[in-house]
Amino acid sequence: MAANATDTPTAQLIFRDELVNAGILARSAVDGLYHRSRTFENIVRGVEAAASAAGEGRAEPMLYFPPLMPRSVFELTDYLRSFPDLIGSVDTFVGSDRDHAALLQVADEGGDWTQALTPSEVVLCSAACHPLYPSLTGVMPTGGRTFELQGYCFRHEPSVDPARMQSFRQYEYVYVGEPDGATEHRDSWLDRGQDLLGSLKLPVDRVIANDPFFGRVGRMLAANQKETALKFEIVCPITSDQSPTAIASANCHLDHFGRPFSITTSDGEPAHSACIGFGLERIALALLKTHGLNPDRWPSGVRSRLWP
Amino acid sequence: MAANATDTPTAQLIFRDELVNAGILARSAVDGLYHRSRTFENIVRGVEAAASAAGEGRAEPMLYFPPLMPRSVFELTDYLRSFPDLIGSVDTFVGSDRDHAALLQVADEGGDWTQALTPSEVVLCSAACHPLYPSLTGVMPTGGRTFELQGYCFRHEPSVDPARMQSFRQYEYVYVGEPDGATEHRDSWLDRGQDLLGSLKLPVDRVIANDPFFGRVGRMLAANQKETALKFEIVCPITSDQSPTAIASANCHLDHFGRPFSITTSDGEPAHSACIGFGLERIALALLKTHGLNPDRWPSGVRSRLWP
């Protein structure tokens, strides 16, 4: 999800303080990393249940992914090319007793002990649907397949905005198959997603959007993505009416995943894919902003939708 | 939790295959990293609910931690000294367009592109209770405080054993206060934990244990920990009757956290702490092993305990 053009740090700090004072989130030593209360987690689980109900009968059995994914899979997604500043690569220690003693000496002297580490075979999950694709290598049936999944994602973008967490969950519906099927999935789920979020009485809107591609080349990629209307966001005011926050996004990936993961349609072409991702923490925050910090007092129609 | 003295890889592979064939877990390209089905996640959530009920009225409001924690907090836990081989340090990219181009060239040539990364301000969570301690710096009330919390932990120990995941959740009750209070917490929760797991009809046992301290010095630390009976595990056969798996563990930390995080008792001494941690994925696997791969057919007393 793209950074807002006009961030409003004062409003962000005020809302963050309100959440902390109400005991809904607690800050850690790092911006964008929070301890969450049961109240917050219950809202997240309610949104999960509502997202699940909205897709009832429309996808294969749900998958839950862990917060990590294989490095080999990450490398095939090409995420490193587009979003290097957001990644989280995991290092560990594989040395001897002697190496360990040297590492500790560096650490004790306040030095950079991570120099002694080695890249592990895992990285932090970059997007909830990335771990799915390697399991699909091969030929898709005619009409494609639709998946429902959820997982923790990482974005290295420390911010005072409570809606810009470094560690957060996406709930996704993903289609893999023919190009037409991908577009149809994206468009029908935009409608369905907007209905779902509207039924939670959130003042949502739909906008053409672009991903926060890195650097000079990235600016061209972003402009191109916007021109070709591949990505839409469902936005809702959280800390700014002028710059509402993306709480869901729906994208056509073209053959961006089909090609590297060798997924083809029945006629042998690289499969296309598309997904809608609901940002569970952001929807929870939008609900708290819109309906107030005490879920017991939310409109009964919203409560019954979240906690049937 | 310590590695078993006699691992039984054949039985582990067989059980892993059974779980995969039943659609309960799906393998990824990395050992110890699984996609989880709704069946598996529902069991985990049932165990969460049972662990919560067992501590009803005994702790402050529940906290949920994200899979990451501040590096500054990790450094104070001294985990790097004891378990360097298990850690996950998170690197990211903070360079320029030119640096990025160089990184991509290395990646495209199959080289180690992680050399161009920089340590971020976060690491993977080493134990569920670690993020708690910095919030307690100061003086504890007489009698101490008890916390209930949950979070994803990382251990770099790739294994074919489905019960040795790299990414898993711990549900903990943590005490911080006087030394006597810490011992009492550990002992009473060992009883309560054994009752809870027994009520799920798991054939559990209680054993004195040690953490898997690293290297030569670690062997002495482990022997000392066992001699002084600081750590107990509640174990249950999963892939071996001879080497049952730890599915919960309860430890006295002495002042291991009180001292570095400057937490004191009311008389100014470094606070002691103790915790019980329930391994949610391991308990789920113990249930699947003991009662079969179809939770619909589990004993009704077990089902009503998990899904009241």
Task: Describe the 3D structure.
- Two copies of one chain form a homodimer.
- Chain A is of the alpha+beta class and 308 residues long.
- Chain A has a single domain (9-88, 126-306), classed as Bira Bifunctional Protein, Domain 2 (BirA Bifunctional Protein, domain 2, 2-Layer Sandwich), CATH 3.30.930.10.
- Chain A has helices at 9-21, 38-54, 71-77, 79-82, 97-108, 179-199, 215-227, 280-291, 300-306, and strands at residues 25-27, 34-37, 63-65, 68-70, 89-92, 118-124, 138-139, 145-154, 167-177, 205-209, 231-236, 245-254, 263-264, 272-279.
- In chain A, the strands form four sheets. Chain A has a seven-stranded mixed sheet with strand order 3-8-9-14-12-11-10. The first copy, chain A, has a three-stranded antiparallel sheet with strand order 4-6-5.
- In chain A, a hairpin with an 8-residue loop joins strand 11 (231-236) and strand 12.
- The radius of gyration of chain A is 20 Å and the shape is globular.
- Mean pLDDT of chain A is 96; it is low at 1-6.
- At the A-B interface, strand 2, helix 2, strand 3, strand 4 and helix 3 of A face strand 2, helix 2, strand 3, strand 4 and helix 3 of B.
- Chains A, B: Residues 151-308 form the Aminoacyl-transfer RNA synthetases class-II family profile domain.
- Chains A, B: This is Aminoacyl-transfer RNA synthetases class-II family profile domain-containing protein.
- Chains A, B: It comes from Antricoccus suffuscus.
Largest sheet of chain A: 7 strands, mixed
Overall morphology of chain A: globular
Mean pLDDT of chain A: 96
What is the CATH C level class of chain A, in words? Alpha Beta
Strand order, sheet with most strands of chain A: 3-8-9-14-12-11-10
Element-level helix/strand string of chain A: HEEHEEHHEHEEEEHEHEEEEHH
Distance between the termini of chain A: 30 Å
Total number of distinct structural domains of chain A: 1
Model regions low in confidence, pLDDT < 50 over at least 5 residues of chain A: 1-6
**For the record, what is the CATH homologous superfamily label of chain A?**
Bira Bifunctional Protein, Domain 2
Helicity level of chain A: 25-40%
Rg calculated over all Cα atoms of chain A: 20 Å
CATH topology of chain A, which one? BirA Bifunctional Protein, domain 2
Which structural category do the helix and sheet elements of chain A fall into?
A: alpha+beta
**In terms of quaternary structure, what is this?**
homodimer
Largest interface (C-beta under 8 Å): A-B, 69 and 69 residues
Query: How many beta-strand elements of chain A?
Result: 14
Helix count, DSSP H or I runs of 4 or more residues of chain A: 9
CATH architecture annotation of chain A: 2-Layer Sandwich
Strand content of chain A: 25-35%
